[in-house]
């Protein structure tokens, strides 16, 4: 292994996680709310901002495009500022010299959401190659199809995509082939300043999308949501700034909940909210996990006794969120009987299980759809269903983190295992989990840098 010691964590397993941690704003909302600030003619104030890599990447991209960013992810810089508060001033976007954008290639999924705001402001946009987790092909065809429908032209270049809006973008009628989160956000961030009405059907309706709509409404946008996945946006001529506290990260909250279950511990997640986690909570209860919902957070714990095997299918909201799947699978290795997991959102999100098998888990992958819901991946050679038989004792191992949630899942497995694990590539976890090592220590985990 050639990685630096700084990117390795030694995890001494076998002890329950006990105590309290706090989750702040959602990784899947905060960077998008930051992009929305580009649409305004006045500064925006975003609160409850976590110090995670995806936020830093978008801060850098915004600065490159002339947005002045004040406020801190760490300590406040001026009196009166809170930590976790950003003030984003887009007054100088038109005069920015966008050099070095290539440095941001492969950094996250977010650059593609700059398209609409930049086309409105500048009439053109350059989008470098995207990053994000390697959990499937992750094409962006829907994004470019909708942008063309608004009137943009797109040219593929060796280092990215170059877009132009020869005239003001026009509202349009769009039907997404699948309720994609990013494409729905693309439509929202483009339609709010387009001329006329946009009607989007088969839209994603994840809580982070609702929160982005709240942000845009605060800026002056006119957006309505029907119960049938239809979103209507009436374009306006200009938008102001916003003042918004980001919704808490339900994905991080569920990760800690799964860690409590797998390690037979008890974790109070300050900031966790029932409303955005209802589907997770139902599943957690079926597995045998206990929780208590308070005004400020949710306590999750293992109540003792055996856990139950379950059948689980991931889906778009309000279904079981795919990003909850990997951490919960670790807990399912401790349940009695056969659990069945059908991953219907990403075709390659079960590859992380081979390392769990090396630790002693029994997880078999299948190409077939093992669930009631036929999905886009059935009969297409993707190992997207799993049968987990448990309970199995886990042993510490050498682990290489494959992606964000897979990485956190390996930490959970290492904490639940007997012996010591050496987890490589842990820096990836900083992409979506704020101060995770400090939180682990606060919960009593025995972790150290080699
Ligand atoms: C930064 C962020 O918010 N990431 C989240 C977002 O990712 P992201 O927005 O990338 O995910 P999408 O909802 O767009 O993708 C869902 C499915 O649609 C497919 N697709 C998507 C776009 C497209 O142009 N063509 C296409 O085929 C994807 O390959 C995937 O199979 O939503 C996912 C689904 O809840 C989450 O797992 C990610 O954590
Ligand atoms: C898949 C994820 O994120 P991204 O879309 O940023 O890769 C995730 O948060 O689990």
TrEMBL record:
PANTHER family for this protein: UDP-N-ACETYLGLUCOSAMINE 1-CARBOXYVINYLTRANSFERASE
GO MF terms, alphabetically ordered: UDP-N-acetylglucosamine 1-carboxyvinyltransferase activity
Pathway stated in the Swiss-Prot or TrEMBL entry: Cell wall biogenesis; peptidoglycan biosynthesis
Active-site positions on this chain: 133
Residues reported to bind UDP-N-acetyl-alpha-D-glucosamine: 109, 323, 345
Broad class of where this protein is predominantly found: cytoplasm
Residue(s) carrying 2-(S-cysteinyl)pyruvic acid O-phosphothioketal: 133
Family: Belongs to the EPSP synthase family. MurA subfamily.
Residue stretches making up the Enolpyruvate transferase domain: 12-440
Function: Cell wall formation. Adds enolpyruvyl to UDP-N-acetylglucosamine.
Organism: Streptomyces iconiensis
EC number: 2.5.1.7
NCBIfam families referenced in this protein's UniProt entry, alphabetically: murA, PRK09369.1
Keyword Transferase found: yes
Classification via Pfam families: EPSP_synthase
Reactions this protein catalyses: phosphoenolpyruvate + UDP-N-acetyl-alpha-D-glucosamine = UDP-N-acetyl-3-O-(1-carboxyvinyl)-alpha-D-glucosamine + phosphate
Protein name: UDP-N-acetylglucosamine 1-carboxyvinyltransferase
Membrane-traversing stretches: none
Gene3D superfamilies: Enolpyruvate transferase domain
